[in-house]
Amino acid sequence: MPVELRKRKEAPPAPVRPAKKKAPAKSKKAESEKTVVEKAQDTVTEQVEAVKEAVVGKSSNGESAATGGAPKVGDTIDLSTFGGEVETNDGTKTTFAKLVEESKGGVVLFTYPKASTPGCTTQVCLFRDSYAPLTATGYSIFGLSSDSPKANTTFKTKQKLPYTLLCDPAQTLISAIGLKKSPKGTTRGVFVVDKEGKVLAAEPGGPAATVEVVRKLVGDKEGVPTKEEVEKKEDEEMADTAGEVADSAAEVDA
After folding, report:
1. Where is the stretch described as Disordered (predicted)?
2. How far is residue 186 CA from its own chain's centroid?
3. Superfamily of chain region 85-205
């Protein structure tokens, strides 16, 4: 009797193992979950970065770079990129670099908040009355505000100013010399540079104080107005302004 061969049973296929799930990316720990050591490491890292920034912000001779803020007395500024473009009261476009180039000995900028107001009128008139001695050594004087050319032309004409008024509505130059008042105001002050761009004066001050700064630079000691004289002039300007307002009101009523 023939032997019947049994068929070998086939082994079942091996089960497919599910793919391992990728571990979620480690998220940055919240500040509250950090250990004391981790917090200390973060602090050290921040300090190192701060030191790097401070080193990069220094010039080769150890003085602060001009881009680090408003220039101070003794700094030499890069005139080619300083202050952007401004406009004279007669509508001519110009730059601070061009003003310095055209001067004989340097430039005096005095800033004022608003044309034709009492304090600003006092200031421009003090510079007007001292114009000859202040420019005797070659300085060119300019008033600087964020007023329009029209407003500054009216101001210049009425007060018979012998110097140009600069209009800086965007406050690029006012900001560059550090006399912008947030958000859109202007701090009264004075800024002086020589022909090489070295800063000789940079400070806020009242009408008489800004003139006195320039007087000291040019060696003119005579004619410095006293506090009483300045206050008297301001009172007169305020009285004139009040009179003009009254006249305008009377015209409207009529």
Report:
1. 1-41, 220-254
2. 10
3. Glutaredoxin (3.40.30.10)
